[in-house]
Amino acid sequence: MGILDSKVPKGPLANKWTQHKNDINLVNPANKRNIDIIVVGTGLAGGSAAATLAELGYNVKTFCYQDSPRRAHSIAAQGGINAAKNYQGDGDSAYRLFYDTIKGGDYRSREANVYRLAEESANIIDQCVAQGVPFAREYGGLLDNRSFGGVLVSRTFYAKGQTGQQLLLGAYAAMNRQINRGKIKAYNRHEMMDLVLVDGKARGIIARNLVTGEIERHSAHAVVLATGGYGNVFFLSTNAMGSNVMAAWRAHRRGAFFANPCFTQIHPTCIPVSGDHQSKLTLMSESLRNDGRIWVPKRIDDAIAIREGRLKPVQLKEEDRDYYLERRYPAFGNLVPRDVASRAAKERCDAGFGVNKTGEAVYLDFASAIQRYGKEEALTHGIKNPDEKEITRLGKKVIEAKYGNLFQMYEKIVDENPYETPMMIYPAVHYTMGGLWVDYNLQTTIEGCYCAGEANFSDHGANRLGASALMQGLADGYFVLPYTIGDYLSKDIRTGAIPTDLPEFEATEAAVKERLQKLMSGSGQHSVDYYHKKLGKIMWDKCGMARNAKGLQEAIEEIAALRADFWENVKIPGKADGMNQELEKAGRVADFLELGELFAKDALTRNESCGGHFREEYQTPEGEALRDDENFKFVSAWEYKGEPKDAVLHKEELVYENIELKTRSYK
């Protein structure tokens, strides 16, 4: 077991990043023209990094498996992006954002990285406004803010219910400018199959052209991975169908440590599962918890009647409803962090109070908000003595302006009008806080291989606060990586172009082809989805919202057996040397079958509950997470040694000099 060097600069927390930028080496503009960088993934983290690096003068190659960077899963982050600008005058600051993020992550994130994130947050908003991102504005013309879970201020900037999409279009426009200048060469419909190391340094990738099936070699002086999270290891998640762990896992197999794989976020505000036919889940933005009140019936008889269709939720009187988050957490109410809200919903449903046919749903109700906004609007417009109908009409208009596209989406999927009847929601796998271990410079344990956004582990600890994913992705891409990668590349100004005919490229390409051939040679008994669904069920049942030692041990054994069966019996029609989407899926599921076992192993070794990692053996009498700071105040970073069971644990001890560790309380 080794101790990891995070390379956090010395000095006061508030000065670390500024001093570090002053101390690191730079590459002059003339030399940047001679340096190549590969960016894998073109969502918010990858797109912003590629655009910024190209603007600085580097030659950038981008790779994404979609037909366009505009289709990156970043568009699904609907609710907003955090920034400590204090436009509301409610006491926000960079320190407050830093504190909320550390506390929200249950004291399992690195202080220096989180403070830097809070520092840079305000710059992100200015950057995006300059790009034309249409953030919502309040009556005075300033950008508007709303609240998200786990905070007591309004710091979330938003563009209706499509913030991620608008931010991605801003980054995409910046990328397009560089593509037109010839500084970015875009390889769409390409998937990274492996990382190429030359003398221990990342010097390129092997990619597969998903249209032709051709295997290609691409070289660079450094490689940036910005390929998002691994939530699809659960099969059913809010992630896009194609979201995968392949790039990160290929790097892991080449020597990049994988950190905290068991830290996975369950989002409380998703449309419930409707049946076995489903292949993905739909996220309803956390922003809805600003105005929606979450409840279940107080009496089990009423819950049964609702499930059986004998009673409608609107028929239940106010006094017969249990607004359980407001009851249990009066200080934060419906805006508790995601892990807390998710577990509370599970507890109510497990107790028999669930409200859909499966018993796994709670209500998110906007009736109170419609009435409140309606009365406010009537007063604002000078309407005296408005009747109930007028108040409701005005209130619905306000809700539509704030969340209209989300309400539309819900109605299309569920076929119920959420203006008239409460939404049904239930927790689902959403974001992954674990990922490739990176130091303060965002470099992995492989020299020259960097990792940005959700694909790394660095900023969120054991739970991510809402609206912080977009913040981290853009901070890494626009404001962190372009500085820190220059320090590394300053040693490469005399290296010259990296040739792709080196033995290392040849050997890695041969390994890729051999793996593809092995995938194609299964006996053909079961489809790829058959294995993915089986894996997902093991993960959800034994590594999901609640975990215990017995279940995790069973999961490790079951996943290992499932993986062996997969390689023996998977069915992949078609050929490897052409378009073959089933082959694409198979490669991704093969990696999930390894990651899933490491995930369970990581959860089994962490004998505490913290954030999204809830071990049933470690909880307070009230059912809250029980941390063990004496024994587990560290980042788990796993080194690949072949089978996941043989992975070696390395620790990065977490030091808190600026924040007092205490039990999280949102009461």
Automatic annotation (TrEMBL):
Cofactor(s), names only, from the UniProt record: FAD
GO cellular component terms listed in the entry, alphabetical order: plasma membrane
Reaction(s) the record says it catalyses: a quinone + succinate = fumarate + a quinol
Subcellular localization(s) per the UniProt record: Cell membrane
GO molecular function: electron transfer activity; flavin adenine dinucleotide binding; succinate dehydrogenase (quinone) activity
Gene3D superfamilies recorded: FAD/NAD(P)-binding domain, Fumarate reductase/succinate dehydrogenase flavoprotein-like, C-terminal domain, Succinate dehydrogenase/fumarate reductase flavoprotein, catalytic domain
Residue intervals of the FAD-dependent oxidoreductase 2 FAD-binding domain: 36-470
Residues forming the catalytic site: 338 (proton acceptor)
Top-tier EC class: oxidoreductase
The keyword Calcium is annotated on this UniProt entry: no
Alphabetical GO biological process terms: anaerobic respiration
Domain Fumarate reductase/succinate dehydrogenase flavoprotein-like C-terminal: 532-666
Residues annotated as signal peptide: none
Membrane topology listed for this record: Peripheral membrane protein
EC number from the UniProt entry: 1.3.5.1
UniProt entry tagged with the keyword Cell cycle: no
InterPro entries listed in its UniProt record: FAD-dep_OxRdtase_2_FAD-bd, FAD/NAD-bd_sf, Fum_R/Succ_DH_flav-like_C_sf, Fum_Rdtase/Succ_DH_flav-like_C, SdhA/FrdA/AprA, Succ_DH/Fum_Rdt_flav_su, Succ_DH/fumarate_Rdtase_cat_sf
Entry keyword set: Cell membrane, Electron transport, FAD, Flavoprotein, Membrane, Oxidoreductase, Transport
PANTHER family listed in its UniProt record: SUCCINATE DEHYDROGENASE 2 FLAVOPROTEIN SUBUNIT, SUCCINATE DEHYDROGENASE FLAVOPROTEIN SUBUNIT
Family to which this protein belongs: Belongs to the FAD-dependent oxidoreductase 2 family. FRD/SDH subfamily.
Protein name: succinate dehydrogenase
